[in-house]
Design a protein that fits this description.
heterodimer, A: alpha/beta, de novo design (two linked rop proteins), globular, B: Ubiquitin-like (UB roll), 3 domains, three-stranded antiparallel β-sheet, 16 strands, elongated, binds flavin mononucleotide, binds iron/sulfur cluster
Chain lengths: 405, 353
C-alpha cells in the first residue's frame, strides 16, 4: 500500500506562501463554494464528510461547529498550531508545504459559523513558521482570496499545555496558560467569552478538498468512522524517520515496515508509541491494527497527533518511561492537585524504579496514582500523563520487575 | 427544572444549578478546598469530585451544572479513592506541625484527612520547600502548608482589588508569589488580610495573633469595628479574658456591610485594647489636674455644665463635633441629642474637614 496524498499532493511543487501558486493548483475553489452555500448546509456537508479532529480528541468537526450560537455578534475561528506533542511535526509540514490550504480552511469555517476573524496560535519553537504564515496571510489578503476574513498569527512561549484548547485561549488573551473547566465549551464561550471554534491545522487543511470533491468522496477514503487521510511523523529507531500521508485504514505494521523501511541497523522491534508522549506503548502483537481513531482506541492506544515513535529491542522501557514522566512533571501547569503533585510523584517513583531502588509496593503505588490522575485531573494533560506508564506496566511488566529490589 | 438522581435519590433543581449545590440539596455535603462562594470558580482542587454514571472521568461538582438524567454517586469507591490520593499528594508536600499550628482544629486539610482516614502519604519523597520569609508585621506566609487552592489570589484580586499575589512557575514548583517573587511590602499589598481570611489551612496566618491562642480554642465575640463609620462586622477572638485576635464572620446575616472583608486596621490593629496606656475610666479636670471619676459622676458633671451653658447663653452657644471613628448609629444619636435635647443645629463632623 502506498501513501495517499491529499493535503500534501503539491508538496515542494508550490510556494506555500504564495496564494497565486495555490490558486494555480485549484486553491480557493472550496471557499468560493462554501460562501455560496447556506450556513446550515455548509455545516451539514462537513458533518456528512465524517471529518474528525486531527488534534487528538477526534471530535466530529461539523458537529463542533453546529454548537456555535448563530446569533452571537462576535465569533472567532482559532487554529491550534501549538504542536507541542514530542515527536509530532505534521502541522509544521502542512504549513511548510501547503499553508494556503490552512488559511482557506479557516475561512471556510468562518463562513460556516459567521466569523470574520481568525487566529493561528503557533508553537513558540517555530518562529520561522510564524514568518511563513504571516507572509502567506498577506499574499492571500493581497490576492483578495480571503475576502473580509482576517487572520492574525500569535506565537506561544513554549508551554505544552497551551495546546489544550482552553489554555490556548487563555494564552491568546494574555493570561497564564492554564486550562479552563468545561462547560462552558469554547463553542459557546471561548476567546474573550465569544463563541470560538478551535480546530487543529490538519483539520482545517482538509476542508478545501472536502468542499471541492464533495463529502462523499472524503467519507469514502480510509476507515469508515474516521475517514480521510492522516499525516504521520516517524521518529526513533526506524530507517525512514520522516512524514507520510496515508489513508486512515492504513495498518501500523505497514507504517513501520513499508513506509518506515523497518527497524534501523537490522535490529528487532520492541515497541511503538503512537500519538506522542502521552500515547500508549504498543507491543508487537498489536501491530496489525489500523491507525484510525477507533481501531487504536480498541487496543487501548490513541492515534493522537499521529506521531510514531519506534523503539528497537535494545531500548530500556523503564528508562524511556522515566524520561517521559519528567516531561509531564515539567509541563504540568500546576492548576489541579492530581496532575500538579501527581506528575511530580510519578516522576520521583519512576526514577526510583529505574535506579533499582523500588519495591513491589512502589509499583502498586504507581498504578494507584495513575488511575486517579486519569480519572480526576482537570484537563487532558493530567488525564493522559499516566498512559505511557500504565501501558508499559501492562505490556512490558518484566522490564519493571527485573529492576525491583 | 432539571431532574437528576443523587445517591439514588430523585431530585429537582433549577437549570444552571451546579452539582455541588444539587448534592447539598440531596443531603450530600461534598468536601471542597478551592471552592469559595464569594470567589470566581476554580474547579482545581478536585476534592468535590463525584461519579456521574456513564462518564469516563470523575466530574468536579463545583463547576459542573446539573443535567437531566444524571445519575450521581458522591461517595463511590472511585470517588473516595481519588479524594484519598489527592489528600496524600497534598500531605506529601505539607509541613505537619499541627501541635504548634495556629489553625489546629480549624483546618480543612486536617478535617478531610481525618474524615478519609489519611494517616500518612504513600507518596513521601521530597518534602515541602516553599516557605517564604516575609518581614512584615502582619501576615505569615508559610507556604510549606500551602495547598495551592488559589483562594488567596482570587480574594486579593476580586475582594480587595490589590492584585498583589499570583502564581509563579509551573507544576509542582508553582507557588503563590508577588511580582518577581518579592516580599509583600514591595508589592501592591495593602495588608488587609483577606488572603488570611480565605485560607483554609495554616499557610496564611496573622503574625499579631501568633502564639496567643489557637483559633479553635478562642471564644468569638461578634462586634463592630471602631475604626471608622463603615461599620464592618468582625469577631474578637478572646482567650482567657484577653483579646488575642480578630477574625472575619462571613455570614451575610451577621456581616451585611463587609461580608467578612476588613482593612489592615480592623484585622490587625487591635493590640491597643490591652495597652497599659489606654484610658479605662473617665477623667475630670480639677485645678488643672486630671483625676479618675466614675461614669455616673462624669456624665452628671458634663450634663450639669451643658445645662448651665444653655441656661446662661442659650442653646446656640453649644456645638457638637463628632468623629468618623464612631458608628453611623452613634453619629445619628449625637445629632439627635443636639437637635432634640439641646435645641441647636450646631453639629459637625471631622470627616467634613
Ligand atoms: C495537554 C494537551 C495538549 C494538546 N496539544 C494540542 C496541540 O498541540 N495541537 C492540537 O491541535 N491539539 C492539541 N490538543 C487538543 C486540543 O485541546 C483540541 O482538542 C484540538 O485543538 C481541537 O481540534 P480538532 O478537533 O481539530 O482536533 C491538546 C490537548 C491537551 C489536553
Ligand atoms: S491536568 Fe495538569 S495541565 Fe491540566 S489543568 Fe491540571 S495541572 Fe494543569
Amino acid at each position: 500500500m502506498e501513501e495517499k496524498r491529499v493535503l500534501l499532493e503539491y508538496a515542494d511543487q508550490i510556494n506555500p506562501e504564495s496564494a497565486a501558486d495555490y490558486i494555480k493548483v485549484g486553491g480557493y475553489k472550496g471557499l468560493e463554494k462554501a460562501r455560496a452555500m447556506q450556513k446550515k448546509d455548509l455545516i451539514d456537508e462537513v458533518k456528512k464528510s465524517g471529518l474528525r479532529g486531527r488534534g487528538g480528541a477526534g471530535f466530529n468537526a461539523g458537529m463542533k461547529w453546529s454548537f456555535v450560537p448563530q446569533d452571537a455578534p462576535v465569533k472567532y475561528v482559532v487554529c491550534n498550531l501549538d504542536e507541542g506533542e514530542p515527536g509530532t511535526y505534521k502541522d509544521r509540514i502542512i504549513c511548510e508545504k501547503n499553508a494556503q490550504a490552512l488559511l482557506e480552511g479557516m475561512a471556510i469555517c468562518g463562513a460556516a459559523i459567521g466569523s470574520d476573524q481568525g487566529y493561528i496560535y503557533c508553537r513558540g519553537e517555530y518562529p520561522f513558521v510564524v514568518e511563513l504564515l504571516k507572509n502567506a496571510v498577506k499574499s492571500a489578503k493581497d490576492a483578495g482570496a480571503l475576502g473580509d476574513f482576517d487572520i492574525e498569527v500569535r506565537m506561544g512561549a513554549g508551554a505544552y499545555v497551551c495546546g489544550e484548547e482552553t489554555a490556548l485561549i487563555e494564552s491568546i488573551e494574555g493570561h497564564r496558560g492554564e486550562p479552563r473547566f468545561k462547560p462552558p465549551f469554547p463553542g459557546v464561550a471561548g476567546l474573550w467569552a465569544a463563541p470560538t471554534v478551535v480546530n487543529n491545522v490538519e483539520t482545517f487543511a482538509c476542508l478545501p478538498y472536502i468542499l471541492v470533491n464533495g463529502a462523499e468522496w472524503f467519507a469514502g477514503i480510509g476507515a469508515a468512522k474516521y475517514p480521510g487521510t492522516k499525516v504521520l511523523t516517524l521518529t526513533g529507531d526506524i530507517n525512514n524517520p520522516t512524514y507520510f500521508e496515508v489513508p486512515t485504514d492504513y495498518k501500523l505494521r505497514d507504517v513501520i515496515y513499508k513506509l518506515g523501511g523497518g527497524i534501523k541497523n537490522g535490529k528487532k522491534f520492541k515497541a511503538v508509541q503512537v500519538g506522542g508522549t502521552s500515547g500508549a506503548f504498543i507491543p508487537e502483537e498489536n501491530l496489525d491494527t489500523q491507525i484510525d481513531f477507533d481501531s487504536m482506541g480498541a487496543i487501548g492506544a490513541a492515534l493522537g497527533s499521529g506521531a510514531v515513535l519506534v523503539l528497537d529491542e535494545t531500548r530500556d522501557i523503564v528508562d524511556t518511561v522515566a524520561r517521559i514522566t519528567k516531561f509531564f512533571e515539567h509541563e504540568s501547569c500546576g492548576k489541579c492537585n492530581p496532575c500538579r503533585e501527581g506528575t511530580f510523584r510519578m516522576c520521583e517513583m519512576l526514577h526510583k524504579v529505574n535506579e533499582g531502588k523500588a519495591s513491589e509496593k512502589d509499583l502498586e503505588n504507581i498504578l494507584r496514582l495513575a488511575k486517579v490522575m486519569r480519572k480526576a485531573s482537570l484537563c487532558g494533560l493530567g488525564q493522559a500523563a499516566p498512559i505511557p506508564v500504565e501501558s508499559t506496566i501492562k505490556h512490558f511488566k518484566y522490564e519493571y520487575m527485573r529492576k525491583l529490589v | 427544572m432539571i431532574n437528576l438522581k443523587i445517591n439514588g435519590k430523585e431530585i429537582q433543581v433549577p437549570k444552571g444549578t451546579m452539582l455541588l449545590e444539587a448534592c447539598r440539596q440531596a443531603g450530600a455535603e461534598l468536601p471542597t478546598l478551592c471552592y469559595d462562594e464569594d470567589l470566581r470558580l476554580a474547579g482545581s482542587c478536585r476534592m468535590c469530585l463525584v461519579e456521574a454514571k456513564g462518564r469516563p472521568t470523575l466530574v468536579a461538582a463545583c463547576v459542573m451544572p446539573a443535567e437531566n438524567n444524571m445519575d450521581i454517586l458522591t461517595e463511590s469507591e472511585d470517588v473516595v479513592e481519588a479524594r484519598k490520593v489527592i489528600l496524600e499528594l497534598l500531605t506529601a508536600r505539607h509541613k505537619f506541625d499541627c501541635h504548634v499550628c495556629e489553625k489546629d482544629g480549624n483546618c480543612k486539610l486536617q478535617d478531610y484527612c481525618y474524615k478519609y482516614g489519611v494517616k500518612e502519604s504513600s507518596f513521601a519523597g521530597e518534602g515541602p520547600h516553599f516557605y517564604k520569609e516575609d518581614p512584615n508585621p502582619f501576615i505569615e506566609r508559610d507556604y510549606d502548608k500551602c495547598i495551592m487552592c488559589t483562594r488567596c489570589v482570587r480574594a486579593c484580586e476580586e475582594i480587595t482589588g490589590a492584585d498583589a499575589i499570583n502564581l509563579e512557575d509551573r507544576g509542582h514548583h508553582a507557588k503563590i508569589s508577588t511580582a518577581f517573587n518579592g516580599i509583600l511590602a514591595d508589592s501592591t499589598c495593602v495588608f488587609c488580610g483577606q488572603c488570611v481570611m480565605v485560607c483554609p489551612v495554616g499557610a496564611l496566618t496573622s503574625k499579631v495573633s501568633a502564639g496567643k491562642g489557637k483559633a479553635a480554642q478562642n471564644e468569638k465575640v461578634l462586634t463592630t469595628c471602631t475604626y471608622c463609620g463603615t461599620g464592618c462586622t468582625l469577631e474578637l477572638n478572646v482567650n482567657e479574658g484577653k483579646v488575642v485576635g480578630v477574625t472575619s464572620n462571613r455570614d451575610r446575616k451577621y456581616s451585611p456591610v463587609n461580608k467578612g472583608a476588613l482593612c489592615v486596621k480592623g484585622r490587625f490593629g487591635w493590640d491597643f485594647i490591652h495597652s497599659p496606656e489606654r484610658l479605662t475610666t473617665p477623667l475630670i479636670r480639677e485645678n488643672g489636674e486630671l483625676r479618675p471619676a466614675s461614669w455616673e459622676e462624669a456624665l452628671s458633671y458634663a450634663a450639669d455644665k451643658l445645662k448651665g451653658v444653655k441656661e446662661k447663653y442659650g442653646p446656640d452657644a453649644l456645638a457638637m463635633f463628632t468623629s468618623a471613628r464612631v458608628t453611623n448609629e452613634e453619629n445619628y444619636l449625637a445629632q439627635k441629642f443636639m437637635r432634640a435635647a439641646i435645641g441647636t443645629n450646631n453639629v459637625d463632623h471631622c470627616a467634613r474637614l
